[in-house]
């Protein structure tokens, strides 16, 4: 049965998808996903080639969205998907899953061939920290995550042209009424739901002791290293005066008092900072600058008039001079 739906709602394009029947509900239904260009509050370099999706199905995975966009515009256009209930691995590698880490490492290897050595070392160190964080987590208990109803996702495509093609393909669906089938092409690459999913959860809820012990050991090592780094940072800051010339005092005092030279240097920096701030605030507006120039001109004219009067007075005094007989 074909259900009518508008092609657009506000600035969203309505993408109808066909949900195949299930043993628990043996009927085909139409689900509507709302799509628009991605325009986050904090712009990024990839906004022009990404789409924002909302009301995605609760069983959505990256493979499901890949199959959906492949049905719309063909293979090779879809790059990745990030769901709103997942932390973006690009912003925090420490919370990335092993699969996300592997994908990012391959991406950097393929696209950063001309990067300098310093940047490569920083990326390697960041990836190493992410692997340590992943190793310190306890094993998961679910083979597949279900989304909240009405969840959103951001899909990254190959280029801006692909975004145009997706929006045009969605508009054509409302004329042809041939909606793409959800889950088509996914096959066995995604863990099954239903009873098999719950059985797997029950089995994973009792992980192997060696795996749990390995995670605990990794977490303890990571925690001790971070604690030592924090202590080293606090120790270094104890004897260093800040920009205002103050020395941070922590419990137990500082290692040693700041030397007189350091205090004088901090005071000098503080005065320079105050003078710079004062200079920046002086004549901040154009009318203030004009008023100051006008006052300077009036002061010059006033001094010139005073000097002229002095000269005339001296001349008059000279003309009245009478030498003694």
UniProtKB/TrEMBL annotation:
Biased composition (Basic and acidic residues): 121-135, 261-270
Sequence ranges assigned to domain Rrp7 RRM-like N-terminal in this UniProt record: 9-200
InterPro entries for this protein: RRM_Rrp7, RRP7, RRP7_C
A GO biological-process term: rRNA processing
Ribosomal RNA-processing protein 7 C-terminal domain segment(s): 204-323
Family according to the record: Belongs to the RRP7 family.
Stretches the record annotates as Disordered: 111-136, 232-270
Origin superkingdom: Eukaryota
Cited PANTHER family: RIBOSOMAL RNA PROCESSING PROTEIN 7-RELATED (PTHR13191), RIBOSOMAL RNA-PROCESSING PROTEIN 7 HOMOLOG A-RELATED (PTHR13191:SF0)
Any one cellular-component term (Gene Ontology): UTP-C complex
Stated name of the protein: Ribosomal RNA-processing protein 7-domain-containing protein
């Amino acid at each position: 049965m074909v259900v009518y739906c508008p092609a657009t709602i506000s600035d969203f394009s309505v993408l109808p998808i066909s949900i195949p029947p299930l043993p628990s509900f043996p009927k085909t239904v139409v689900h509507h996903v709302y799509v628009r260009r991605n325009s986050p509050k904090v712009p990024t370099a990839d906004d022009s080639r990404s789409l924002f999706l909302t009301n995605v199905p609760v069983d959505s995975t990256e493979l499901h969205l890949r199959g959906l966009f492949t049905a719309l515009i063909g293979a090779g256009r879809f790059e990745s998907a990030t769901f709103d209930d997942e932390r973006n691995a690009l912003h925090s590698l420490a919370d990335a899953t092993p699969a996300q880490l592997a994908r990012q490492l391959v991406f950097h290897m393929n696209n950063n061939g001309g990067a300098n050595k310093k940047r490569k070392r920083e990326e390697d160190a960041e990836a190493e920290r992410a692997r340590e964080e992943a190793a310190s987590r306890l094993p998961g208990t679910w083979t597949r995550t279900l989304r909240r109803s009405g969840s959103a996702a951001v899909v990254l495509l190959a280029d801006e042209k692909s975004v145009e093609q997706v929006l045009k393909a969605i508009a054509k669906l409302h004329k042809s009424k041939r909606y793409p089938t959800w889950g088509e092409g996914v096959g066995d690459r995604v863990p099954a739901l239903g009873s098999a999913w719950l059985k797997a959860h029950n089995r994973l809820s009792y992980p192997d002791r060696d795996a749990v012990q390995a995670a605990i050991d990794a977490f303890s090592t990571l925690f001790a290293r971070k604690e030592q780094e924090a202590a080293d940072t606090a120790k270094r800051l104890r004897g260093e005066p800040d920009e205002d010339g103050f020395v941070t005092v922590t419990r137990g005092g500082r290692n040693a008092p700041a030397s007189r030279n350091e205090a004088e240097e901090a005071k000098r920096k503080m005065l320079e900072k105050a003078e710079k701030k004062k200079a920046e605030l002086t004549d901040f507006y154009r009318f203030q600058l004009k008023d100051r120039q006008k006052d300077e001109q009036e002061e010059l004219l006033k001094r010139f008039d005073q000097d002229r009067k002095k000269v005339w007075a001296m001349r008059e005094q000279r003309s009245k001079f009478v030498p003694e007989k």
